Amino acid sequence: MLRVLIVPLLLLASSAHGETTLFLTPQFKVQVQKDLTYGEGVVDSSSKPRTRKLTMDVYQPKGNGAPQQRPALILAFGGFWHRGGKNAAPMSDAEGNQNTPMADYCQAFAARGYTCFAIDYRLTQEDPGLHNPPNAERLMNPEFAMQHKFLGGANKVRDELGLAPLNDETRFWFWRAIVGSSEDMGKAVAHIRANAETFGIDPERVAIGGWSAGAFTSINVGFGAQAPVKAVIANSGGFWGYNLYQLAPVENAPALLMVWGENDIPGLLQIAPSMVRSMRGAGVDSQLAWVPGRGHFYRQNDITLADDGSKMPLLERMNKFLFAKLDLQTLQ
Predict the structure, then answer these.
(1) Model-level pTM?
(2) Distance between CA atoms of residues 152 and 130, nearest Å
(3) Which of 104, 138, 154, 332 is the most buried (most CB within 10 A)?
(4) Where on the phi/psi map is residue 98: left (φ > 0), alpha (ψ -120 to 50), or beta?
(5) CATH 3.40.50.1820 holds for 2-331
């Protein structure tokens, strides 16, 4: 009699285990499609405007048991709107700390059952233009935002790339790159949702995120442009472009996970408290975490601490955040 009872219980435990690990633990092989076009963007806008294709790499789970309806995660790379790419190698700081590229995050989440998109967007050197500029009232004043005293970080990157410091003309190329990256990611969100059946995703379970410039871009898209997404992950991001310090309450605003390195860029850490106040004051479901001992560069396996007292690797925190905010338990 005991043997008869044990077998069904073991089967039940196995079934329950399988249900709770979908979207939480890696269990699928990953198929990658490179350089799919999701839109076009204007470049060389100050001289001879033209358009170029905007592309993305798509990471999908494959094999037995891969879910037919999946959440979507759209990720944008960092590099101060001057460098990087959807296939970029890890970047390093002076101490040798590295970031995790978006391609690696996409691999990790696709292995858990997501469809992930690593997107390209236009950089400052391309002199981007805007198809549909946002209402000026929703943006920071560009004359204020592009003051030379705020451009030290960008000029440091430009020096590393062999470029001249930003001048009175190219600093507005930089401004259009900040706003233009948001336009590009917004186009990616729209394209992916419009082609949900092709990608095998649920268009109501879309999250966006990124690191550094990609994190700023994701915040701008989710809360400035108010794209139809459910969650935003901002690893070392902030406010620049859209004026979100006076964010009005937004109905159905996405949830937000904000992460910084303990020794992150000083200016970023200085504005962090006001960012959190602005988001929570507008009723945004916001979580805050930091990476002890790290600066602007940290890896997905680095330990994070949160203001709720939790301690876990960054990838696990991102994973649990998305599982909850995209309501993935109902897809088990």
Answers:
(1) 0.93
(2) 25
(3) 154
(4) beta
(5) yes
